[in-house]
Amino acid sequence: MSTATRQALLQSLEAGLHSGFAMEWQAPDPAAGIRIWPGPALWAWARRLASAWRRPSLPQRPRVAVQVPNSPFYLAAMIATWMLDGIFCPLPAWRGEQTAIALDALRPDLFLRHAGGSLELQRGERADRAIADPADLALMLWTSASLHAPRVFGLSHAALGWQLHSHLPLLALQRDSLVRNCLPWTHVFAGVLELLPTLASGASLRVAPLASFRQESFTHLFVVPRVAALLQDSQIRALAGGIVGGAPIAAELAERLRGSALRVGYGQTEAGPGICLGDPGDFRPAFLGRSLVEAEQRGGTLHYRSPGQALGEWRAGRWQPIQHDGWVDSGDRVRCDDDGGWYWLGRRDARFVLADGRNVEPELEELRLLGQYPELATLVLGGPGARHSLALARLQPDLTAQGEASLRRRWHEPYPLRIASDGFWDAYLGPSGKVQRGKLYARWQGIVRGDRDVCTGHGNYAALEEGRA
């Protein structure tokens, strides 16, 4: 069964690559220019990589880890790994020791990464690894870790095939379509629901920095709300399809997207990622769409079971099940309306406790504030152990001094507003752009006090002005 599902997935990708697919790739360095990679050239490159990696021989079903940006090499390496019946393990662009921690957990047979402008290749020692991976294992992907340390889940070829074939008919992808990439493929949303349907359909794919995003023309997008908010109205009207997912959608953005060809989507890394999908143009605040799989509310959170979900979680050197009684608990608090639509109410584990013992569930309130104050690019409501909640925010990058002054005059909320610089936020944003809330809350009191060991390198945070009603 494992060989059959792997071959079926590879055949779908090969057919699309040879039927018109092309990647328009601009390296992060603008001086490198733009290069077009035809699908047949990428397939041939993957075959050469698979042949080269066999010499000296890799063990059966090798784990191949890569830490490279979205690029032709990323695609070729993924396909080459599956040609070898290996497991593809892409690592996010982590800083510091997180990569070393991940490699120690994965123990890959091959590791490739960009360093100093060139590609490094390291081989692991088979004696260091005695792992019994599931027979159909294809991908090992890490969570975005907004609340806890990153976790890694395994997706099978069968699960990827289900995601591909359940979504592809709904996305209006044609050979003349152009998909504009915006998210890293190490993020399960883009790495599965953008990448695989685009390859299999024979459409074209543009990979480039976001600097020129608002001046470009394209037909499809797979983006999180913070990127969708950058779209001009003319670009929204011109789209033929795509998905907005990865985070709840605020009222103002939902209004702009309503009636478009985009769909709202919802899922998780362990879901592989599709659980829910909306109809084209059906956008409402915090709307998740309708379930594509078996889903029900248990104990206030969404539980699901899906052909596209992970085989398990790799933890402490072994595969751990993610199901309980046959169902996976998403941890997302939800409600379901009469027509089967799901709405997000927040994460069960995102709440914090104030000094007086009151529980605060902040996320819907954050969504309201972001919609009411578009000058804010990021906002986290917090106050673990404090007397009151505080709104910690980052301004939109192009906001003028007059715009900031206007924001402060209009801020009539029951919590103080603190503005922190981009440099401060760099320490708390994950590779997908999500705020690592757990890390932020763990240091919250020191941040508010402006402790040097917490705020060093991020400016004089203690001197920032508070604004309140």
Keywords:
26% strand, single chain, globular, alpha/beta, four-stranded mixed beta sheet, 469 residues, 29% helix, 15 helices, 13-stranded mixed beta sheet
Commentary on this structure:
The chain is of the alpha/beta class. It is 29% helix and 26% strand. It contains 15 helices and 27 strands. The strands form five sheets. It has a 13-stranded mixed beta sheet. A four-stranded mixed beta sheet has the order 4-3-5-6, covered by helices on one side. Strands 7-8-18-19 form a four-stranded antiparallel beta sheet. Helix 11 (401-410) links the parallel strand 25 and strand 26. Helix 2 (39-53) crosses helix 3 and helix 5 packs across helix 6 (188-201). The protein is globular.
Briefly characterize the structure.
With 469 residues, this protein is an alpha/beta fold.
- CA-atom Rg in angstroms: 22 Å
Give the overall silhouette: globular
Which percent range describes the beta-strand content?
A: 25-35%
Helical segment tally?
A: 15
Helical coverage, percent range? 25-40%
Strand order of the largest sheet: 2-1-10-9-11-12-13-14-15-21-20-17-16
The end-to-end distance, rounded to whole angstroms, is 63 Å
- Give start-end ranges of low-pLDDT stretches: 452-469
Number of extended strands = 27
Largest sheet: 13 strands, mixed
Estimate the mean pLDDT confidence.
88
Derived from helix and strand composition plus strand pairing, the structural class reads alpha/beta
